[in-house]
Amino acid sequence: MPRKSASRRSSQESRPFRAGRNGFPTCARTLGTFIAYKAIRAGVPMVHVDPAYTSQGCSACGHIDKKNRTTQATFVCTSCGFAEHADVNAARNIASRGVAAWAVSYAADDAA
Ligand SMILES: [Zn+2]
Q1: Where are the domains of the chain?
Q2: What are the DSSP calls for 32-89, one per residue?
Q3: Is the pTM of this model over 0.70?
Q4: Distance 62 CA to ligand 1 centre (A)
């Protein structure tokens, strides 16, 4: 009887996601799915947030304007004057949306 190799699987079977040369997913959507997969495996809770206008919105006052981005790296609010690195400002907006989404998602669990 021929010996079967149970551990031999194709690379597609062993990797649930299509990886680029660096081992990470090649597009943003796949990256989101990859992160969700890893979070579930690690038992880490995760919430999705809408990324729309997070780079144009002011994390201090909430004012949204394309002109808030003076350069690719610089954010200066045209309403309140708040200034910060554009990526840090966008990260603050994403974090605050995550906190809000978390409260909505898990408030019902806490009430039960
Ligand atoms: Zn502002």
Answers
A1: 17-46, 49-112
A2: HHHHHHHHHHHT--------TTTTTB-TTT--B-GGGBSSSSEEE-TTT--EEEHHHH
A3: no
A4: 6
Note the pLDDT tens digit of each residue in 16-66.
Answer: 566 777 776 677 778 888 889 999 999 998 888 999 999 999 999 999 999
What is the whole-number distance in angstroms between the Cα of residue 57 and the centre of ligand 1?
8
CA 101 / ligand 1 centre spacing (Å): 22
Give CA–CA dist 81/59, Å, rounded.
11
21, with CB counted inside 10 A (0-12, 13-18, 19+), is: exposed
Q: Is 25 in a helix, a strand, or coil?
A: strand
CA of 92 to the centre of ligand 1 (A): 13
Q: CB–CB of 56/47 below 8 Å? A: no
